[in-house]
Design a protein that fits this description.
Layout (H helix, E strand, L loop, with lengths): L5 H18 L6 H18 L4 H20 L3 H36 L14 H16 L8 H9 L1 H4 L7 H9 L8 H33 L7 H33 L16 H7 L2 H12 L9 H19 L3 H19 L8 H20 L3 H13 L6 H5 L8 H10 L4 H21 L3 H9 L2 H16 L13
Helix pairs in contact: 1-2, 2-6, 3-4, 3-5, 3-6, 4-5, 6-8, 9-10, 9-20, 9-21, 10-15, 10-16, 12-13, 13-14, 14-15, 15-16
């Protein structure tokens, strides 16, 4: 089920909110927890009911493992359970996400002819696997208690963060669930959550989906692009990716806020970063946190000299690339960011004099890396880079802009077709420039929570939110699936 769908907004979410807060009135909190776990399983299974058993089995297996940590307190038993837990979770992830990639590469490099059917990727498996991995490790470190099953099931399956994050740690969700006083309805908390949801919905529907019209149209047309149009498409995909994923994160955090829970922040104005290292403290924050805590530090972090630190950084970014997908393009994308962070580590003074130039350099680097991320293959990346730097200017940009036939400009477009056909190209270029300018302003502006705190509680702010919600809702017929559902 999509957050940006009519059934979710008009049926699922109101039903889930009503049932949750009504059941809170009962003395036994288990009813409310069980209700929301059940709603979360419906939410997950709605997309493909086949995936549901994978989530349930994974959740039950990790819960049983948590019980065994209580039964076998000895050091040897704990280490064995840690190996089983980490190996089991990674094995599940490897089979569904990487096994086809592994077989394809065996066939290519070893000249074998292994044939298997394409394994479907379960929705959100990277997210709920990483959450449970963190819990297993914290159980081994004795930083997590053994929770009742409903509490643990709630932690894993809570629907706002289930499919595309943010990656939540147990201490960020379960203690608040267990404190009954924290589950009472709050008008202010509900309003702030609803406001954040609306801003995220507008990012996704009005910006990401509008940008996707052009990006999707040119995805299979790279060979025909010239340099200006290639840069336009790659820049637009960068904005689409940001507004798609940050919009989802805002919606997820906003929905959780309506239920009385605070999910961790996942984006913090990343295009204000003046270094690649800072960028990753602002982009997909919970993934960076997970890889830092459970990969970088266990490998030694920066405690074993500069050379080892650089090696650890490359390992982290290699895993970051692999986490995003089973493809060499994702691996190269991760290594590009790893190499950039290693360069900043080795040459900390290699910076521009003005901070805005550093920010611009980071943005250009990210756009170039996104061109790899976007590609289906390294051959496609090579072709795209050729277009970015050596294709010249053949006047292709107006033709690319002509793809911007959106519901918002339909009336003007039909009017110009009948009365002034010669103005169509200038009109499409105007739409291109306007949408780009809005995107850039939002990329460089404050995050959504800051706007809500400053203006969201005024009458003017409420009017803006109502307008954005109405505009987004009537545009839901053109929605697309979130990009990060693929990861």
């Amino acid at each position: 089920m999509l957050f940006n769908s009519v059934i979710f907004i008009t049926i699922f979410l109101p039903l889930a909110l009503f049932g949750w807060f009504m059941l809170q009135k009962l003395e036994n909190p288990a009813f409310a927890k069980a209700f929301l776990v059940g709603m979360s399983l419906w939410f997950y299974g709605y997309y493909n009911v086949y995936y549901l058993w994978i989530l349930v089995v994974s959740m039950a297996a990790n819960f049983c493992l948590s019980i065994l940590f209580e039964k076998f307190p000895g050091a040897k038993g704990q280490k064995c359970l840690l190996v089983v837990g980490v190996g089991g979770n990674l094995g599940l992830l490897f089979y569904f996400k990487y096994f086809n990639f592994f077989v394809d590469n065996c066939n290519f490099f070893l000249h074998t002819d292994i044939r298997i059917e394409k394994i479907a990727l379960p929705l959100g498996i990277s997210f709920f696997t990483f959450q449970q991995l963190s819990f297993v490790v914290e159980r081994y470190r004795k930083n997590a208690a053994h929770y009742p099953f409903l509490d643990y099931a709630f932690f894993v399956s809570f629907f706002p963060q289930l499919i595309a994050g943010p990656i939540v740690l147990h201490q960020e969700l379960i203690p608040r669930l267990q404190e009954r006083k924290n589950r009472t309805f709050s008008v202010e908390g509900f309003y702030d959550g609803a406001a954040l949801f609306i801003l995220g919905l507008a990012k996704k529907v009005l910006l990401a989906d509008s940008l996707a019209v052009l990006v999707s149209a040119e995805y299979s047309n790279i060979a025909m692009l010239d340099t200006p149009s290639a840069w336009a498409v790659v820049c637009w995909f960068t904005m689409e990716l940001y507004f798609d994923f940050s919009g989802y994160s805002d919606m997820a955090r906003g929905i959780a806020g309506m239920f009385g829970f605070a999910l961790p922040e996942n984006f913090n104005s990343p295009f204000r970063a003046a270094s690649v290292r800072e960028f990753w403290r602002r982009w997909h924050i919970t993934l960076t946190r997970f890889l830092t805590q459970y990969v970088y530090y266990p490998l030694g972090g920066n405690r074993k000299g500069r050379a080892r630190k650089c090696l650890n950084l490359m390992a982290v970014f290699l895993l970051s690339g692999l986490w995003h997908g089973a493809s060499w393009t994702y691996i190269v994308w991760g290594l590009m960011h790893g190499a950039a962070v290693v360069f900043e580590t080795l040459f900390p003074k290699a910076r521009f004099r003005h901070e805005w130039m550093n920010r611009l350099a980071v943005t250009v680097f990210f756009i170039l890396s996104v061109s790899v991320f976007w590609s289906d293959s390294l051959e496609m990346t090579g072709l795209l880079w050729q277009k970015l730097f050596t294709a010249g200017n053949r006047g292709m940009l107006p033709g690319v802009c002509n793809m911007l036939q959106l519901p918002e400009n339909y009336v003007v477009l039909k009017f110009l077709e009948r009365t002034a056909p010669g103005m169509l190209n200038p009109f499409f270029i105007f739409c291109f420039l306007l949408l780009t300018a809005v995107g850039v302003l939002l990329l460089r502006g404050d995050k959504a929570e800051v706007w809500i705190a400053k203006k969201g509680h005024s009458w003017q702010g409420a009017f803006v939110l109502a307008t954005l919600f109405f505009w987004s809702f009537i545009s839901l017929s053109q929605v697309s699936v979130f990009l990060y559902f693929n990861f």
